[in-house]
Amino acid sequence: MKMSMGPIGQRLLGLAVLGAVLVGMGGAALAEVGQPKPWEMNLQTAASPIMESIHHFHSFLFWIIAAITVLVLVLLIVVAVKFNARTNPVPSRTTHNTFIEIVWTLVPVLILIGVAIPSFRLLFDQLDIPKSDVTIKATGKQWYWSYAYPDNGNFEFDSLLAHDKQPRLLAVDNEIVVPVNKVIRVQVTAADVIHSFAVPSFGIKIDAIPGRLNETWFKATKEGMFYGQCSELCGKDHAFMPIAVRVVSDAEYAKWIEEAKKKFAAFPSNSYASAEALQK
Predict the structure, then answer these.
(1) What is the pTM of this model?
(2) CB within 8 A of 164, min separation 6: which ones?
(3) What is the pLDDT along the chain (280 residues), one digit of tens a residue?
(4) Are strands 224-230 and 155-159 parallel, antiparallel or unpaired?
(5) DSSP string, 53-117
(6) Domain boundaries, the chain
(7) Sequence-separated (6 or more) residues with CB below 8 Å from residue 200
(8) How many whole angstroms separate alpha carbon 255 and alpha carbon 250?
(9) Which superfamily does 134-279 belong to?
């Protein structure tokens, strides 16, 4: 039986198709930037060598965990089918099995060694900071970030959540700007309580602790906008202190540096009030 749709049905179908296309386009657009996507179940797209290594290590661990899960499931099924009370009315009185005890001791040790080797290598790469091209000092405050560029005129500015920009809860008024394919050293500290500086696409996450200077690094391999957030519960507005990094070409970076020196020189105090004044 053939069904025909009236004008209303055709319009609804057209809107549904248009909506699906827009959602697909939106998803594709989001996939190009370093920010979370709706229904995301995997790590964010890698935009640095360290994050690529994290992706590889994550996939490696996934297959090990999957194999262990399948093995345990198979053993449970075998035990339930082969050694239930109906199949074995007289239970076995075996108390020791030297071979099995050696296997279940040796195999987990080998698995842990196999996991530890790439894990330690990744930790070493994260903590061994190469010769940097640009140094940025990030200071966590309740509840925003302040950034200084000691290698480029030693200017400093505040970065606050921009409520009138997209993406929501990730956009800021003043972004970090860095050149592409350069080693960026980030010195991290805090002015009040413990914060955490984290940008998932770069594979960096390090605590900002008052009175202590921690260091991390990244090398952005793609131009564009990349977002992170404070990842340490730091008070009532913890959810409203995002991190935004704009990766640009060398020429654009040099131009931005000259503009930033003039823009932020008028506000040497670098306080929350100075950031508000910049917006006026």
Answers:
(1) 0.78
(2) none
(3) 344 445 554 554 454 444 443 334 343 333 446 888 888 888 999 999 999 999 999 999 999 999 999 999 999 999 898 888 888 888 777 788 889 899 989 999 999 999 999 999 999 999 999 999 999 999 999 999 999 999 888 899 999 999 989 999 999 999 999 999 999 999 999 999 999 999 999 999 999 999 999 999 999 999 999 999 999 999 999 999 999 999 999 999 999 999 999 888 766 544 443 444 444 4
(4) unpaired
(5) HHHHHHHHHHHHHHHHHHHHHHHHHHHHHHSSTTT-SS-------HHHHHHHHHHHHHHHHHHHH
(6) 49-84+101-127, 134-279
(7) 34, 43, 44, 51, 228
(8) 9
(9) Cupredoxins -  blue copper proteins (2.60.40.420)
Residue with tokens 């995002």: 242
Is the CA virtual torsion 53, 54, 59, 63 positive or negative? positive
Question: What order do you get walking across the sheet with 214-219 strand by strand?
Answer: 155-159, 144-149, 134-141, 183-190, 214-219
How long a stretch of residues is the chain? 280
**Which residue, chain included where needed, has tokens 């609804």?**
12
